[in-house]
Amino acid sequence: MTNSATASPVPRILVFDSGVGGLSVAQEIQQRLPLNPLVYASDNAFFPYGTKGEAELIARVDMVISELLKRYPADILVIACNTASTLTLPHLRSKLNLPIVGVVPAIKPAALMSKTKVIGLLATPATVARPYTHELIREYATDCQVVSLGSSELVQIAEQKLRGEMIAPNAIGKITQELMAMDNAEKMDVLVLACTHFPLLKDELAQQLPTHLTLIDSGAAIARRVEFLLADAVEPPAEYIPEHLAVFTKATAEAQQLAPALTRFGIHRQDYLGI
Ligand code: DGL
After folding, report:
1. Residues 6+ away with beta carbon under 8 Å from 234
2. Closest residue (by CA) to atom 2 of ligand 1?
């Protein structure tokens, strides 16, 4: 793998999500690969993905990714969204000629880690319903009971948090109460955060959940995979400083409000696709 697509001295990584959730994955990538420039792309014009129909989502992701790669050539693409990955990966891989890493629910590590053999799955309603997710459970968690909850509210709350807005008191508590009221939930010892927005709320979620519950997500595994795929890339020149960029499909006041949060991820520039 060389960084020939971008002619950049260091391979450029395109990280894609419907909104800010992929930043939880971008952060893990930055920790492992601090010298690689990131293009962080948010399809805010079509956000949220978790409530969209399958055919419209496949068509939308296809169109947006094609546009992004035209405007911002990248050496590797990370679909940092469970909702999109569990649906669109085969299609994207058949079409695009670059390595693609997707994020899927961390069912396998959760099942291996669980002692009680009751694991939780917190995701978007779409990810909870996906055949891909059911297949993961059948393949890796046959010995576990899976307590699943789909929540779009939690996605919105993560967006609010990164815009620096107030989160309504007990907004997160209502969702955790709903989860803990499900059959056998008190026996859960591992909870899979299967939406990339949710690790952005990990501290808030942990505060509301029983202390014995371990929260896991796929971010670190994705970063390891990206590092592996870029292992043969050329070394950056001495004192190379990567320039990161955030791209939104639509210019909105909300996107501009994200500037301080993006700065915390080392992203100082925003661009808009207008699609
Ligand atoms: N962050 C996305 C995921 O991992 C989806 C959020 C949404 O747009 O509903 O599933």
Report:
1. 2, 3, 9, 10
2. 81
